[in-house]
Specification:
The complex is a heterodimer of chains A (389) and B (389). Chain A is mainly α. Chain A has helices at 2-10, 12-27, 35-60, 69-86, 91-115, 120-142, 153-159, 173-199, 207-230, 236-254, 256-266, 268-273, 278-304, 315-325, 337-356, 361-388, and strands at 147-148, 162-163, 234-235, 307-308. In chain A, α3 packs across α11, α5 (91-115) runs antiparallel to α13 and α8 packs antiparallel against α9 (207-230). The two termini of chain A are 17 Å apart. Chain B has helices spanning 6-12, 14-29, 37-46, 48-62, 71-87, 92-116, 121-140, 150-155, 175-201, 209-232, 238-256, 258-268, 270-275, 280-306, 317-327, 339-359, 363-388, and strands at 145-146, 308-309. Chain B is an all-alpha fold. The radius of gyration of chain B is 21 Å and the shape is globular. Classes of the chains: A mainly alpha (389), B mainly alpha (389).
């Protein structure tokens, strides 16, 4: 019985996700479960996963956030538009230049926060304002409509559309094959992890738990693969999202650098005294945030096929919510990439579900705010319980 | 006499000097337009909300660099409610009461989560920023609701008649206004002298008489000059009365009351404060409830000034208030800052805004400049703290 409670507690958000999904499937009379909506869930929320990954790294260092990322998405998008559309620059060169600008910005931001001790929310609040203004100014100076288009097809293909696309409704073989491979990998990894742990004498989950976990994961992966295969194939952005999520979950769980983020968030002073340069870690967190912000900007402009002055509005909110809902501590030191993925998906499902139900955009904002608050309160109360026990 | 060094004075009054320089810059750039009576008048009425919100924000910041990101949305929400009530021909004072109580309720809601559940302020208020923005859209149903009630507009600084009437007939110079300026100057002088005498009798250290006389002279000159300018236009804008009331009340609260000192104590060292028997939760709660009240008042002033409510009102107001506090020398880590500084900070931001508008700088670049000013102020603050250590 105790085990069941522990499993429930560990996977609360996952269970909430399933329940919310079922709720919307019922209230939208099955619309939610249609192949195109699976596709929409990924393409619409790709930026959330990417920004939330960066935000996670910032938050781990002690609940620090980046309020500027949404505005920077707009600004760097405008810069990209000027490079590629107005100047007709080679897309690859433009993409590289955008990244360079992002890195310069990230270094300045990181320097201010890590070395000058400017509180992160103030430094990024300044950026929030400045980059929205600058981005909008660039767009309106270069186009009468305030939006720059059309982007070259090479760029669009790299960051939007489908890989090996097939007509909608027809089963895409590549997509199914990738699903099968991913499923096999997951099962193999699960079994290997258990074997390794046992060999080293660590505590490991029971064989039944591993089997249940593997079966559930395979079911989810195959469901997604099947639905996406019917919707025309693998969305290109899914590859970007998957790559980033995998890399960062490796960094956070397996590398020394990744562990430093947690120790700083846990106790910055102790970390510093054990000889780790905490400033470097803070610097890395914000530099990294800028890099991921640029990548999500590629995806956002490619999805809208234009650089808009409204691009990126409230993205910071989405990223922070995804982290907090996914169990990342608002005080730093705890949180995982997989939790964040669940959180981002949950918010994506809520957004999509509400849109399908025809709920007014204003109420959606209210719901988003309440979900964010509820998630933090839940996390705080939950932690209080466990620390007492 | 030797105790006072020029550098000390420079350091203490950096922002005052910056303000003078900025005014001089815009005076030069706009060919003197910035100091026209009408523009001084506009400076006050346009920035009334900044003074009011910044006074509330100061209390939050004092408790440890905590902020309220929701106040802009709350301004819109409360303003929207008021406009809708007034459009239903309900008594104006009922509407005003509802707005102020509404502000307090919002403050209680946020204060509860922040103080008693320990939700980090930036997350709680970020959630509020979205939720109340959504709710204001719902209240206003996405439309502009006009306010035609002349009592409301006159009292809270909107429309053409929002000036304190001239008691001495209608000359080209508003005598009431000028007289009030002189009275304020006299009260100020009396106040300073009384403080000085009481300090002398208690054997406290006092500044040299010469410096104090110079300071008194400058302050009186500035006050009378401002009122002279106002008298040349239409007299005292009613919004100035509200600003003055708020600033005097908060100047008093922060410097003379126990609750005011608690705010500094909590910001300086929360743990020590707690151990000396003060409940920090009550202090946080007070700060945020008060912030709600100020947002309510700012909502009233905003809709009065615009003669109506729109769902886009209040965007970026949180930024203006925060910037005013930091530019005015409040510490981003809490425990330091005063109402006088906020007045200087808010005026500086107002002058920059107005100067840029007169110069015809595009609104987008104004945002960029505002962001930079905020950043410079904060870096300056952080750097000068470092030197002290």
């Amino acid at each position: 019985m105790k085990n069941a409670v522990a499993v429930l507690r560990k996977n609360t958000m996952l269970i909430v996700l399933v329940l919310v999904f079922l709720f919307f499937t019922i209230t939208t009379k099955g619309q939610m479960f249609e192949a195109l909506n699976f596709n929409a869930l990924i393409t619409q929320n790709a930026y959330v996963y990417i920004l939330a990954t960066g935000m996670l790294m910032c938050m781990l260092t002690g609940g620090n956030i980046d309020l500027a990322c949404g505005s920077f998405v707009c600004f760097i998008g405008a810069v990209g538009g000027i490079f590629m559309v107005i100047r007709g620059m080679n897309p690859l060169l433009a993409v590289l230049l955008m990244m360079v600008i992002g890195i310069v910005y990230g270094s300045v931001l990181g320097y201010l926060i890590a070395y000058l001790n400017v509180p992160p929310w103030i430094a990024t609040l300044a950026g929030y304002l400045a980059f929205r203004g600058w981005g909008t100014a660039l767009l309106s100076a270069n186009s009468s409509t305030g939006s720059i288009a059309p982007f070259p097809s090479g760029f669009l293909n790299a960051f939007s559309g489908k890989v090996f696309s097939s007509p909608i409704g027809q089963l895409n073989v590549v997509c199914i094959a990738v699903g099968v491979i991913a499923s096999i990998l997951v099962v193999v990894i699960n079994i290997m992890t258990r074997k390794n742990k046992l060999k080293k004498g660590y505590e490991a989950d029971s064989m039944t738990a591993v089997i249940i976990k593997s079966v559930l994961s395979v079911a989810v992966i195959m469901l997604f693969a099947y639905k996406l295969a019917l919707a025309g194939g693998i969305p290109t952005v899914l590859i970007w999202v998957a790559a980033i999520v995998l890399v960062y979950s490796f960094i956070t769980s397996k590398t020394t650098l990744g562990r430093y983020f947690y120790t700083i968030g846990g106790n910055a002073e102790a970390t510093r005294l054990s000889g780790i340069d905490t400033r470097k870690i803070m610097f890395t967190a914000y530099l990294n945030m800028a890099v991921l912000t640029v990548i999500s900007s590629y995806i956002v402009i490619a999805r809208f096929q234009a650089a808009n002055s409204t691009a990126g509005t409230n993205y910071e909110m989405d990223a922070i919510s995804a982290c907090v809902v996914g169990g990342v501590s608002a005080y730093g030191g705890s949180g995982t990439v997989s939790g964040m993925v669940v959180g981002a998906t949950l918010i994506g499902v809520i957004n999509l579900g509400m849109s399908l139900m025809g709920i007014d955009a204003n109420w959606q904002k209210v719901v988003k705010g309440v979900v964010l608050l509820a998630a933090v309160v839940f996390e705080i109360l939950n932690n209080k319980d466990t620390s007492k026990a | 006499m030797g105790g006072v060094k020029i550098t000390d004075i420079l350091k203490k009054y950096t922002m005052v000097i910056a303000l003078i320089l900025v005014v001089a810059f815009f005076y030069w750039k706009t060919g003197g337009k910035i100091l026209l009576p009408q523009n001084i008048n506009n400076l006050i009425s346009q920035n009334a909300y900044v003074f009011v919100l910044a006074a509330g924000m100061l209390l939050c910041i004092l408790t440890g660099g905590n902020i309220d990101l929701a106040c802009g949305s709350v301004v819109c929400f409360i303003g929207g409610i008021g406009a809708v009530i007034m459009s239903k021909n309900i008594n104006v004072w009922v509407a005003v009461l509802v707005m102020l109580v509404g502000g307090i309720l919002v403050g209680i809601w946020q204060g509860f989560w922040i103080a008693y559940v320990k939700v980090p302020p930036f997350i709680a208020t970020l959630a509020g920023m979205y939720a109340f923005r959504g709710l204001s859209n719902v209240v206003l149903q996405g439309m502009t609701v006009g306010i035609g009630n002349s009592t409301f507009l006159n009292v809270f600084g909107g429309g053409a008649e929002c000036y304190v009437p001239d008691l001495f007939g209608k000359g080209s110079l508003n005598v009431t206004c000028l007289l009030l300026g002189i009275i304020i100057a006299v009260i100020y002088v009396a106040f300073v002298l009384k403080n000085r005498i009481s300090a002398k009798t208690k054997d406290y250290a006092t500044a040299p008489l010469a410096t104090e006389i110079i300071k008194m002279f400058i302050v009186c000159a500035v006050v009378i000059w401002i009122f002279y300018k106002l008298a040349q236009y239409k007299g005292i804008p009613t919004s100035l009365i509200w600003i003055a009331v708020v600033l005097v009340v908060y100047g008093y609260i922060t410097s003379k009351t126990t609750m005011g000192r608690y705010l500094y104590a909590v910001g300086g060292n929360e743990k020590a404060t707690k151990l000396s028997g003060i409940d920090p939760r009550k202090v946080y709660f007070f700060a945020y409830v008060n912030m709600g009240l100020m947002s309510g008042l700012a909502g009233i002033l905003t809709v009065a000034r615009a003669c109506g409510a729109q769902p886009t009102f209040g965007q970026g107001y949180e930024m203006d208030a925060i910037a005013a506090c930091f530019v005015g020398g409040a510490s981003a880590y809490g425990g330091e800052g005063n109402v006088f500084g906020v007045v200087i900070g808010a005026t500086l931001m107002g002058v920059i805004n107005m100067g840029m508008s007169i110069m015809g700088v595009e609104a987008n670049y104004q945002k960029v400049v505002k962001g930079l000013v905020l950043l410079i102020a904060i870096v300056f603050d952080v750097m000068s703290k470092k030197q002290k250590k």
